[in-house]
Structure formats: C-alpha cells, structure tokens
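#lab-general

N.A. 3:47 PM
ok so I finally got the sequence cleaned up, no stray characters, all 130 residues accounted for. can someone with queue access submit it? mine expired

B.Y. 3:52 PM
send it over

N.A. 3:53 PM
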Amino acid sequence: MLLDTSGLLCLHYQTEPLHTQACAAYKKATIRLTHSYIIAEYVALATARRFPRSSALAFVVDLLDNPDIETVWVDEPLHREAVVLLMARQDKTYSLCDAVSFVLMRQRGITEALTTDRHFEREGFTRLLA
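B.Y. 4:20 PM
back already:
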C-alpha cells in the first residue's frame, strides 16, 4: 500500500480519529511505499495541525530508517509524469503530491492507499481510511 500524508498522520498520532484503523491496515500490509513529496507534505501538515515539530520530525526519521518502508525519492522524470497527469485532469483539485502518488502506484501495481483523501478513489484506487 501507499502510505499517504493523511494516513501517516493517523498512524502517528493517537488523537486522530482513524488511528486504530490506520494501525490495523498498516500491520496487514505486505508492501509499504511512500515518496519524498509525501514526507515533505507530512511535515507541513503536522506543523499546520499544531503537532509538536520535534515529534513530527522524529517520526520522519524513523520512517526513513524503517526497512519495512520503501521511500521513493522523486526525480525529474517522475515529477514530469505527475505534471502530465495534472494537465490531463485540470477539472480536478489534485495536488502535485497526489499526482506523484497516482503515477507511482500505477507504475508499481499498487491499488491501496493508507489515506483519507477521496482523490485516490476518483483515480480508481482503494482508500483505506474512511
């Protein structure tokens, strides 16, 4: 499964309403994939939600060091392919981070995302947190 920004927030913070559901889905996953834009977005979201910065950054370090999670570092070809997707979906409100996730999931044959974001469903993926 892809570990999206909102899913990581639910996984990390016990005060999030979908924390238990996120933990259960995470434990069941055989593939755990994320990317560098999600990590950047996670730090921004945690800060905006007023979670302690030190906690968010420690979580990111643990995530990057976790051998069970593959982190893809977004390079120029992946970034450009995501922009092409955004250009084709101008009627949608997808972020560049979303578009990178969609492209990466299709490349890897991943159908499930640990996310609360309905955009994933609009692109034909399974949103695990609802």
